[in-house]
Amino acid sequence: MAKPTTEQLARINQLARVPLTEEEAYVFPAKLVGDQIIPRRFYRLTPNFLRKMAVQAREGVSLLLDHSWANLGIMTIPLGRTFDSRLQMDGDELALYADHYMKLGQEVGDIKIDQIAEGIDAGTIFDTSIGFTVSSQTCSICGQEYFGGNCPHIRGREYDTKLCTVDINDGDLMENSLVFDGAYPGAGVVGMSNATEQQPIVKWEALSEDTKSLPSGGRVFYSFSGKSGLDGFVIKQEKNNVAETQAEGDDTLTEEQKAALAASQTQTIALTAANSVLGQVRVALGVENDADITSKLATLSAQAADGAVYKTKVTEQACGAGVRALGEAFNTETMKAMLSHLPVSEIEKIGATYEAQAQAALGGGGRHTEGDNPDLPAGAANGTAPTNAQAAGQKTPEQLQTEAKEAARADAIAALKNTGRSNLLKEDK
């Protein structure tokens, strides 16, 4: 039977209502899930969701048998609970591990905890599967909500050589179950001396509300949900325990050997972190190999340059229409500054509004003779301003200019609010 360490027992007793002894607590680690694609189902949990799950596993979620909560009529009582977690890189995979505990001597229904523990020790109980809720599922191709939205893609199919998957971005970890065949490859009970535990561990610590606590140059990852709000996490690399013991506690090593071992350990951690970053870059760019990153970045850079040129053109057209609509009342420089913060689609909408108002203010561009009569309009010979037959009964140009200004301003405010930049517009005094 696997007994807890002193540190593990202290963590367990923070959750237990009645403190457990070393003899009562049975502990085992398990790999819960990772950020790889789930075969045949084409789902993928994103790193942000994994970081949130790690926090919830550390707080403690239920250990069940075969997702009993999902089977109506089956009694669901936890056999144990998670009490700690860690994220670590397994090659290119960011994987979530959790430590579980059960109380020996208990019986839950007809199930004896000691028998479950013996099965885990014997290796006959080994697969695990998580149960979780989902609040955000987006398409890996277009980024839209996959279900109930406008996404036209089908998971499992390829589009321009890119596989469509459903990316699960947010939700909550409910439980971990001991099962006979889990869905996620590699998920299950791992040995206390399992080789994967010697990989550099990626620890995520909650970011203090005091932003000054962030180390200089540190990276912060954020996760947002309706349940917990905005949570910030700071990455922290822990030393490998074996290397640390050799470097600091082995008297047989010389100072030079200790320094060389420490330098090697630092280099290993740096390489692991670099590989992790490269893996995230590949996912973000949608490429399979590191060699494709440069060419993909060059393509994106060219597209960005073309987009910047087009945005400048659309902005100039919108401001030109604004001048025609409002005349001297239109502040071109201020409007260009505001439009620079908007996407092209919003600038095009604002430009179309100005153009429509300019046409109205200029009389709609209609002819000023009546029918086929080539004579001058009535009153033209005595200096009276000609009327626009097509604009008869319409408002004066001054009124149209005022309405144009108000409509254009309303469109600009709405567009800036949609992008969270409404503070760039000052209220009229």
pLDDT < 50 stretches: 193-201, 224-230, 237-250, 366-371, 383-392
Q: Specify Rg, calculated over alpha carbons.
A: 33 Å
Task: Tell me which CATH architecture of the largest domain applies here.
Answer: Alpha-Beta Barrel
The count of helical stretches stands at 9
- Taken in chain order, the helices and strands follow as HEEHEEEEEHEEEEEEEEHHHHHH
Mean pLDDT: 77
Biased composition (Low complexity): 377-394
Region (Disordered): 361-406
Protein name: DUF2213 domain-containing protein
Q: What's the layout of helices and strands?
A:
Elements: H1 6-15, E1 25-34, E2 43-45, H2 47-59, E3 62-65, E4 80-90, E5 93-103, E6 107-108, E7 111-112, H3 113-122, E8 127-139, E9 158-159, E10 162-163, E11 166-179, E12 188-189, E13 201-206, E14 220-225, E15 229-237, H4 241-249, H5 255-285, H6 291-326, H7 332-339, H8 344-361, H9 397-418
Parallel strand pairs: 2-11, 3-11
Antiparallel strand pairs: 1-5, 1-12, 3-4, 4-5, 4-13, 6-7, 8-11, 9-10, 13-15, 14-15
Helix pairs in contact: 4-5, 6-7, 6-8, 8-9
Region (Disordered): 361-406
Protein name: DUF2213 domain-containing protein
Biased composition (Low complexity): 377-394
